[in-house]
Amino acid sequence: MARALLKKYPELSESDLAFHLVEASGRILPEFTDQPGEWVVRMLERRGASVHLNCTMTSADDGHVVLSDGTEFDSELIVWTAGNAATRLLRNHTDLPHNARGLVQVRADLRIGTETEIVPGAWAAGDDAAVPDLTSSSPGAYTVPNAQNAVRQGKLLAKNLLRSLRGREPKPYVHHSLSAIATLGLGTGIFQYRRIVIKGLPAWLMHRGYHVLAVPTWDRKVRVLAIWLASFFYGRDIVSLASVQSPREAFEAEARTAALSAKRTST
């Protein structure tokens, strides 16, 4: 997308682009095994990015970034992805059991409570719930707080509520992840199923196909697919950040230019 900007804005050049990816752990894309993750790092570096693993940002005063490994550089745009956290409302204003991260303690069947004690009539699912991961070999593991689990937990919660109202035991949440897939820019992606790894355009098409199938209703599927096809053949829809932050500025500047032109014509 950044290189596409160079065609739209002649005042920008290749030397204006510099990307740094700073990761506190020793790898990126933890959903994948080591070798696919290493391939992604090499691919990003071939495209001109600098990847800093086992590294954190020490400071970013006035756009000057200092990393824990001593690297320093200036940046016009800093994007911080800090993950998610539970709302403090649960910890500070309810007496529901929660873990050290502030997530509501949930049993495998999505009832709030522990293995020995259940909160009557209380259920939870999604990002703010610590749902035991029954498929993990690590003791005490919880399901990943992503949309994939949240949607499935929501459906099971509804079914378990119905089972409970009918006097039946609720079912535990068990989801075996079939694969991992990610896009790495327009036309590039990576897919892994056990030891099978697919890279590049085929993985990108698989990612898009899966998400089209996941979009509800056929009219929305067609709309989303049409937008993606247009972007693939004609490029991304690009707008400058200045236009987003000050949407009236361009109109006001054009109005001043038109008024000045009209004044000159009249004189």
How is the secondary structure organized here?
Layout: H1 2-8, E1 19-22, H2 34-46, E2 49-52, E3 57-61, E4 64-67, E5 72-74, H3 88-93, E6 104-105, E7 111-113, E8 118-123, E9 129-130, H4 147-165, E10 180-183, E11 189-193, E12 196-199, H5 201-214, H6 218-234, H7 241-245, H8 247-266
GO molecular function: NADH dehydrogenase activity
Domain FAD/NAD(P)-binding: 19-154
Protein name: NADH dehydrogenase FAD-containing subunit
Using brief descriptors, characterize the structure shown.
three-stranded antiparallel beta sheet, globular, 267 residues, NADH dehydrogenase activity, alpha+beta, FAD/NAD(P)-binding domain, 12 strands, 8 helices, NDH-2, flavoprotein
How is the biggest beta sheet arranged? 3 strands, antiparallel
Instruction: Please tally the helical runs, counting DSSP H or I stretches of 4 or more residues.
Output: 8
Distance between the termini: 46 Å
The secondary-structure class comes to alpha+beta
Shape annotation = globular
If strands are numbered along the chain, what order do they take across the biggest sheet? 3-4-5
Per CATH, what is the topology of the largest domain? FAD/NAD(P)-binding domain
Q: What is the level 1 CATH name of the largest domain?
A: Alpha Beta
* Uncertain parts: none
Beta content comes to 15-25%
CATH architecture of the largest domain: 3-Layer(bba) Sandwich
- How big is the Rg? 25 Å
- CATH homologous superfamily assignment of the largest domain: FAD/NAD(P)-binding domain
Average pLDDT score: 86
Please provide the ordered H/E string of secondary-structure elements: HEHEEEEHEEEEHEEEHHHH
* Helix content bin: 25-40%
Pfam families: Pyr_redox_2
InterPro entries: FAD/NAD-bd_sf, FAD/NAD-binding_dom, NDH-2
Protein name: NADH dehydrogenase FAD-containing subunit
Family: Belongs to the NADH dehydrogenase family.
